[in-house]
Amino acid sequence: MGFLLAFILAALNYWKVPILGLLAACYIDFIRNTPLIVQLFFFAFGLPGLIGYVWPFWCHALLALTINFSGYFAEILRSGYASTANGQLEAAISLNLSRPVTFFKVILPQTIIKMFPSLSSQFIFIFLTTGVISEIGVTDLTHAGIFIDSRTFRSFEVFITLSVIYIILALSLKASLEIIFKKTLGNRS
């Protein structure tokens, strides 16, 4: 969901759609300039108090992470779109291609290859920052480690083990993303 929202925001921002492009740019700047922990607490404790809804904490965490990372993904996508050579756009205009056709057939295929390393890094960063969600009571790997530490008082061993698990998972995710890149886009770069 965050990636889809980012895709829409980046397109609105890149094409400078009146009013919507400005709103997208403001949203991106606001999200990227506020800490994730503040957004997480707002969605978990502030917003439910304002509008009176009750969700499980994992839903609040998912919403906060989705909104937070949509801002970062949108900026990566926008910069990828902007990296398209002007000659490519001029060629599309001279062929009388519409904006959507130009976007999906000219800009997007070229920029996905350029954006893939940044997007991969951001996906890994999402995974690594999920440890923050334990602050609102969602059970995750970090929360489990803190629980074990509170029972055993073996902080060093618990957090070394947590670090090793996070490293293994992050490197596995990185390797998976590299395989996906090579299988799908690697022959075009």
Report on the architecture of this protein.
The radius of gyration is 20 Å and the shape is flat. By secondary structure, the protein is mostly helical. Helix 1 packs parallel to helix 4 (57-82), helix 4 (57-82) crosses helix 6 (99-129) and helix 6 (99-129) packs antiparallel against helix 8 (155-184). It starts with a helix and ends in a 5-residue tail after the last helix. It is built from eight helices and no strands. The protein has one domain (2-184): MetI-like fold (Orthogonal Bundle). The longest helix is centred in the middle third of the chain and has 31 residues, at 99-129.
- The pLDDT mean sits at 88
Largest sheet: none
Cα gyration radius (Å): 20 Å
Based on DSSP secondary structure assignment, what is the total number of beta strands?
A: 0
* Helix/strand order: HHHHHHHH
Break the fold down into its secondary structure elements and pairings.
Layout: H1 2-14, H2 20-32, H3 36-51, H4 57-82, H5 86-94, H6 99-129, H7 141-152, H8 155-184
Summary, kept brief:
This protein has 8 helices and no strands. The protein is mainly α.
Provide tags for this entry.
189 residues
